[in-house]
Amino acid sequence: MCDVRRATSAGGVPLTVCAPSHAVRRGVVVLHEIWGVTPSIGAVTRRLAGAGYAVAAPHLYHRQDSPIPARERVNDALRLRRTLTASGIDSDVRGAIDYLAAAGATKVGVLGFSMGGTIALWAAAHAPIDAAVSMYGGGIARTRWRGIDSGTALAADLRVPWLGLYGDGDSTIPVAQVERLRTALSESSVDAQVVRYPGVGHGFVLDPLATDCVPAEAEDAWRRTVEFFGSHLG
Which intervals hold domain Dienelactone hydrolase (predicted)? Predict the structure, then answer.
């Protein structure tokens, strides 16, 4: 089992990283939700490293002085999310990609949760990666950050395979929006998949101790993610 540790990209992006002890040729960038790089994100890096990937999770809030808010302080977290910019997101994602490439990864995927899932869809259209997975990423109908298109607009620009996983009970991402995204993706020339889980809400995967986690669906989502990366990263 790998040790989760802090690192810095060549461009100065702070990262939480984990990698197998053996040489790797594949990597995954993990993009956090609005709560920042929590212990749950660290657990994700360890889980992916156990599957044979080098993993790097950029700290997307590193330009802000504000502390990461407690989970019950949603408004504080949303305000922090609004401080992100398209140029900052691009720089941080590329910094993590460059770190993994320097570690030996010749193919890189992106896995994002919630806010990070929104960015993962953008990355599938604009970042130098090979595949991406979004766990319940919002911003489908309307953009969240100037310079980053909405999900339905990004669908036409996908460059690499993408998988999106959503819960039908997610009040922040209506099923109608997910289906509009599916329709937009039908015109894509790459492998683009949307999976819906009936009866589960937002955040059903990341933190197994959270009340919104649904174990059976969470495990299925992980299985699909690992298989998707296995197919497209090798």
Answer: 19-232
What is the pTM assigned to this prediction?
0.95
List the CATH number of the domain containing 139.
3.40.50.1820
Q: Note down the domain range covering 207.
A: 5-233
Question: Tens digits of per-residue pLDDT, 34-74?
Answer: 999 999 999 999 999 999 999 999 999 999 987 777 776 88
pLDDT digits (tens, 9 = 90+) for 178-232: 999 999 999 899 999 999 999 898 888 976 656 677 788 999 999 999 999 999 9
195 burial (CB, 10 Å; 0-12 / 13-18 / 19+) is middle
Give me the number of domains the chain comprises. Answer: 1
**Alpha-carbon distances of 11 from 26, 154, 172, rounded to whole Å:** 21, 27, 34
212 and 204 Cβ atoms separated by less than 8 Å: yes
- Give 125-148 as a DSSP string: HHSS-SEEEEES---SSS-SBTTB
SS3 state at 161: coil
Q: Is 140 exposed, middle or buried (0-12, 13-18, 19+ CB in 10 A)?
A: buried
Tokens of residue 225, six digits: 């993610």
